């Protein structure tokens, strides 16, 4: 059986409803959507997304990343994006296997398989797309296939995951993976600041504090932060704030003024301006439209996206 057809068959058998589904394999999730979805905010954590069927788009800043069975996506750090399934139907649903990336395991593999010549340490964007190779797809099929043999998972899953990481490390997009594995890489220095921002997004933010956390000069910090996230630190923080405010209003029916205050805005008017700039309409109207759509089941496939963490 063709590897891609086999992966579609395995995922389709194990996920019958739309959403993100954890599995018995640690770090592995299966994702399904039977319809295209409207762009929704979500934070991509360090993950490999391998699409078996359909197509999805992730907007990071103004850059669109479209991935499908021919292209896999790597997210190297925590990034707030606008994600939408752009090709799916009930007959041919969007199906994806997601694997959390273990930097400890990656670090060990980098030590065992160094490059003949180390490339520059300046980071590229925190999201990368690369061609899905037959070898990577074959390993993904064997990993997903373990869901049919749960007694084998404890012994065999770590071996297959290690093979997948090796394929990523030795493939065309290895630069971003190697930077994830190196504790002193610019990518990981920026990742420290991102981790702090995710935990303190509703607090006042001093750039000098972020610079100190990253251990970079002020100019280098701004340059590398922009390269990784496509945003300035304040734009990044505001995206986190607005994503959480939207979630509060839609899923907890918090009013706009309270949502803005809870995510760190002192000025309701500034909150409304920023919100409308990001989501295209004032917060109260946007939340009402989304709650109405949820009530009618129109956002059934995107409900899991109302979160500051995926």
From TrEMBL:
Keywords on record: Transcription, Transcription regulation
One function term, GO molecular function aspect: sequence-specific DNA binding
Domain (HTH araC/xylS-type) ranges: 191-289
PROSITE patterns named among the record's database cross-references: HTH_ARAC_FAMILY_2
Protein name: AraC family transcriptional regulator
Lineage: Bacteria, Pseudomonadati, Pseudomonadota, Gammaproteobacteria, Pseudomonadales
UniProt xrefs under InterPro entries: Homeodomain-like_sf, HTH_AraC, Tscrpt_reg_HTH_AraC_N
């Amino acid at each position: 059986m063709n590897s891609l057809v086999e992966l579609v068959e395995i995922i389709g058998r194990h996920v019958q409803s739309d959403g993100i589904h954890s599995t018995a394999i640690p770090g592995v999730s299966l994702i399904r959507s039977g319809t295209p979805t409207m762009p929704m905010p979500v934070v991509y954590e360090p993950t490999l997304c391998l699409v078996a069927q359909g197509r999805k788009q992730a907007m990071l800043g103004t850059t669109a990343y479209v991935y499908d069975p021919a292209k896999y996506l790597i997210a190297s750090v925590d990034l707030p994006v606008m994600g939408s399934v752009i090709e799916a139907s009930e007959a041919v649903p969007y199906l994806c296997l997601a694997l959390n990336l273990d930097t400890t395991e990656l670090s060990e593999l980098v030590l065992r398989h160094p490059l003949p010549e180390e490339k520059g340490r300046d980071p590229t964007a925190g999201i990368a797309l690369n061609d899905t190779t037959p070898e990577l797809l074959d390993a993904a099929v064997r990993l997903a296939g373990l869901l049919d043999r749960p007694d084998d998972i404890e012994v065999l899953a770590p071996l297959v995951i290690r093979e997948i990481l090796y394929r990523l490390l030795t493939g065309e997009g290895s630069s971003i993976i190697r930077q994830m594995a190196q504790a002193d890489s610019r990518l990981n220095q920026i990742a420290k600041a991102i981790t702090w921002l995710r935990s303190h997004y509703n607090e006042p933010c001093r750039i000098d504090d972020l610079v100190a956390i990253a251990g970079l000069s002020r100019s280098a910090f701004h340059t590398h932060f922009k390269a990784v996230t496509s945003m300035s630190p304040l734009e990044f923080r505001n995206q986190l704030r607005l994503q959480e405010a939207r979630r509060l209003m839609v899923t907890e029916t918090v009013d706009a003024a309270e949502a803005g205050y809870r995510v760190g805005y002192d000025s309701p008017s500034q909150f409304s301006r920023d919100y409308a700039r990001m989501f295209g309409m004032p917060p109260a109207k946007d939340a009402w439209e989304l709650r109405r759509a949820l009530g009618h089941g129109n956002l059934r496939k995107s409900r899991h996206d109302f979160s500051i963490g995926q």
